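Quick one, tokens below:
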């Protein structure tokens, strides 16, 4: 389904003035290239099996102004690849990323520059994303200085204001990344992203490496910053329980495809897709205290050889013959809700 088709029907919860980002039928493939030995073997007449991973397969949805979209699924489902494409760090093999309605790939260089500033990314491990040789103040001020976000005379005040908003003491600007705790480093990573005045921040497992108590603090910080800076987020996480508390809408991915999409509250109250139902059963809640932990049956198949038809069919308790041969289309099942399951056809 194209972004235009979804545009009129999926209304984000947050007030919006057109989407910040439209992801239009995006596909990303990774192809195994022949190494030296394979090239030698090919010269001698051997054949090389060019195996292709469909990391992202025909994904379309939008992110509205100040909207928080949770992108969830098991490891290897393509959510981080999609997050990197949305942030402009990776390119789609086919399909388009539209920033404020304009195709980023074909845009003039000035528009591409604006896109790269307006959409920022925060990574899982803040230590990996901070240069160990840069003092914290330099790490946060480098991009706004380079892109002239504020006049040079106001740069220090701008950085201090952002650091304070992120809960970092500006007097620690002379310290190196290894001199901060994990939670403080993530706050610095957030400050660095905010220093260029973004509209959308892609958070890739941004709290996954933190202690549970620190996770809660950082999630609260994300919500405070949303209000303070009119931010939207694409929150990429394997933990559907975490994104529940912060997302307006959820996008559930399985082996490169979107299987369900809808407002978070509705999706938690009544999940439609069997994969979403299975994911929610893994989330511990007080209501289910004492109930046994329920994991999804079976292993996630290799993306090199995904199952035919519905990718979820080997693990789905409701799979039929049709599921093994026909790919279910992502269809509207209620206002603002979409699901890709043949069961929805059978019950209509
Ligand atoms: Fe299960 Fe079939 Fe629906 Fe896929 S299409 S989730 S296999 S019932």
């Amino acid at each position: 389904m194209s972004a235009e088709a979804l545009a009129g029907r999926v209304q984000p919860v947050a007030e919006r003035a057109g989407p910040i980002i439209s992801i239009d039928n995006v596909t990303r493939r990774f192809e195994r290239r022949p190494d030296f030995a394979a090239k030698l073997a090919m010269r001698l007449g051997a054949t090389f099996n060019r195996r292709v991973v469909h990391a992202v397969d025909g994904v379309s949805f939008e992110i509205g102004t100040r909207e928080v979209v949770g992108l969830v699924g098991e490891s290897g489902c393509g959510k981080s690849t999609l997050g990197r494409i949305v942030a402009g760090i990776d390119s789609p093999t086919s399909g388009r990323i539209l920033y404020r309605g304009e195709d980023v790939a074909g845009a003039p260089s000035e528009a591409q520059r604006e896109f790269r500033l307006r959409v920022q990314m925060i990574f899982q491990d803040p230590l990996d994303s901070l240069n160990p040789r840069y003092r914290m103040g330099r790490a946060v001020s480098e991009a706004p200085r380079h892109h002239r976000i504020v006049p040079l005379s106001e740069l220090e005040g701008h950085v201090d204001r952002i650091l304070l908003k992120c809960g970092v003491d500006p007097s620690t600007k002379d310290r190196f990344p290894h001199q901060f705790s994990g939670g403080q480093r993530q706050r610095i990573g957030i400050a660095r992203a905010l220093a260029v005045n973004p509209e959308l921040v892609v958070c890739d497992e941004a709290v996954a490496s933190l202690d549970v108590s620190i996770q809660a603090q950082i999630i609260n910080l994300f919500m405070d910053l949303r209000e303070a800076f009119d931010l939207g987020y694409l929150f990429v996480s394997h933990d559907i329980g975490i994104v529940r508390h912060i997302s307006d809408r959820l996008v559930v991915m399985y082996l490169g495809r979107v299987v369900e999409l809808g407002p978070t509250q509705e999706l938690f109250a009544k999940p439609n897709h069997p994969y979403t139902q299975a994911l929610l059963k893994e989330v511990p809640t007080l209501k289910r205290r004492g109930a046994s932990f329920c994991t999804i049956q079976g292993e996630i198949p290799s993306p090199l050889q995904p199952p035919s038809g519905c990718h979820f069919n080997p693990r789905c308790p409701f799979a039929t013959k049709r599921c093994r041969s026909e790919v279910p289309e992502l269809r509207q099942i209620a206002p603002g809700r979409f699901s890709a399951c043949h069961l929805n056809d059978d019950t209509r």
